[in-house]
Amino acid sequence: MQNITAGATEGIALTCGMSGSHEFIFTLVPIVYGCIFVIGIVGNSMVVAVIYSYMKLKTVANIFVLNLAVSDLTFLITLPMWATFTATGYHWPFGGFLCKASAGLVIFNLYTSIFFLTALSIDRYLAIAHAVRSRRFRTVVYARITCVLIWLFAFLLSVPTALTRDVHNITNLNTTVCAILHPKIKSSAIRLKELLLAISLMKSLLGFLVPFIIIITCYCLIGRALVGARHIQKSSRSRDDEVLRMLAAAVLAFFLCWMPHQVFHLMQVLTQLTLVENCAILEIIDTAIPFTICIAYFNSCVNPIVYGFVGNNFRKNLLRLLRCSPGGAPRPHPSISSKMSSFSFRASEALSLTAKSKASSDIK
């Protein structure tokens, strides 16, 4: 999506032309968007249906995963518009309101997705390392309150992005784009520059760096707890390995999907702050940005796989849903993180036994 230098909203002349405008982008990116839309809608809808129909909202993990899937669905509905925007050579035919709303929903999904992943990581850390002490905090009520706070906080963070987006006419190219306006009026330009800098810093810090540090820290502490407990219960090795693989996949997916976009986004911000008008540099950045966005959007497809389809219980319930099997008598269905949750008590007990054994050896 283009960043433009404006003289006026009703008529804008670009100094570097439509940088990043290539036929292969206009062809390939919409196809990728279409695939992400189909896979993401189907995958996340299945997650919502399975959790709501069979697993119920009786565990903290299920509540967070359900909200994560709903967050991805709210974003995915905007992909057809972005696909059309790219396929038509960055021409936006949907009006100003949908321009603002779609841009806001993209950032809204960024924050909600990462915040829910972070909440899941913290919940898993508490379930493993502090299984007994955290039981009074890891309740359905607290989980729902956390979800409400995440939705509200993400909405507030996404409002500035929506306000700085609008539809602009490019006079020398006879097209209309959904983009950020950079006015030449000095007072307005300075205020807008400061606002865009704040938005970009929030996107990099709150939308990636800080949550990633929290997630990595939680998973390192989880791994240490599991490794420590493994010395006590060798029979749990296969279950531990499965949990660790799931956690590693979640971190890897998070990092690989968002890191390229964050890097080029930072480069884009630097060019805006220094008012770089080197068309070659802008061409490289604007050409790479659509592909990094595709990778970032793919995270909405990965989430159902990482947090849902890796679970045996989820697959069984999915087959029941596809076969339209009746619910029958209510039976306890473990959550998506049931294997880890059930092991958390054994891990805590093992850690406790380790501490007691060390204490008794010191006495002797």
From TrEMBL:
Location of this chain's protein in the cell: Cell membrane
Spans through the membrane: 24-52, 64-83, 103-120, 141-163, 195-222, 243-264, 284-310
GO process terms (BP): calcium-mediated signaling; immune response; neutrophil chemotaxis; positive regulation of cytosolic calcium ion concentration; regulation of vasoconstriction
Keywords, comma-separated and alphabetical: Cell membrane, Disulfide bond, G-protein coupled receptor, Glycoprotein, Membrane, Receptor, Transducer, Transmembrane, Transmembrane helix
Domain G-protein coupled receptors family 1 profile: 43-307
Keyword Transmembrane part of the UniProt annotation: yes
Pfam families on file: 7tm_1
A Gene Ontology molecular function term of the record: C-C chemokine receptor activity
Biological role stated in the UniProt entry: Receptor for angiotensin II, a vasoconstricting peptide, which acts as a key regulator of blood pressure and sodium retention by the kidney. The activated receptor in turn couples to G-alpha proteins G(q) (GNAQ, GNA11, GNA14 or GNA15) and thus activates phospholipase C and increases the cytosolic Ca(2+) concentrations, which in turn triggers cellular responses such as stimulation of protein kinase C. Receptor for angiotensin II, a vasoconstricting peptide, which acts as a key regulator of blood pressure and sodium retention by the kidney. The activated receptor in turn couples to G-alpha proteins G(q) and thus activates phospholipase C and increases the cytosolic Ca(2+) concentrations, which in turn triggers cellular responses such as stimulation of protein kinase C.
Family to which this protein belongs: Belongs to the G-protein coupled receptor 1 family.
Name this protein carries in UniProt: Type-1 angiotensin II receptor
